Fold this sequence. Notes:
By secondary structure, the chain is mainly alpha-helical. The protein has six helices and no strands.
Amino acid sequence: MATDDTIFDAAATAFAQVQTTVTQLKSDYASVCAQIADTQSQLTAAPLAYIPLADLQAGILDFIDASGLKYAQDEITGTVSNFAQNYMSGNNNNPALAGKPLRFCDIEGAVNGAGFIQLLTPYKNVFNDQVLYYFFGQLVKQGLSALMADMPPEAFGYDAIHPDMIGTDRVTRRAAIVSLNAQLSTLQGQKADLVSKLTALGVRIPS
């Protein structure tokens, strides 16, 4: 009987230890879940906060560069390529020349005024000022910068929001979002580890 008591006591001690461990793991799990929810909430809110006026103006200037580059890549490069491969010259009615480089006579004819082709603004009935953003971006930005310097905050809508709604600038915000994503990844890893441990102890975690 003494041996049975010893076995029971050992089992009871082990069981109590398991219960203590499960309680702690559940507490850790709840804490991690709360931190995940908070981090996700911060990630949702971070892009939605307003930025300082000066940074908004800087963003408008950044748009000039990005928009001009996209236009050049999407429109101008394709048009130049089509022109160089005989798709836009007077030879485009000759299938044998399509897709091949312009010959000497073709480019000479174009240079000497044999035809009219718009390479920078391919759509003859529409003018897109993105072409100016690409080729004269620095001048456009200088002019816009001077113009915006004389515009009051109200012209950018800042009279419609409370100053408390203005958050950090874009550089700081980007860094914060990167940090929050890294934090979220770590927390999700901790959550998965806790689920694995609890499952091994026979505790089912609702999905």
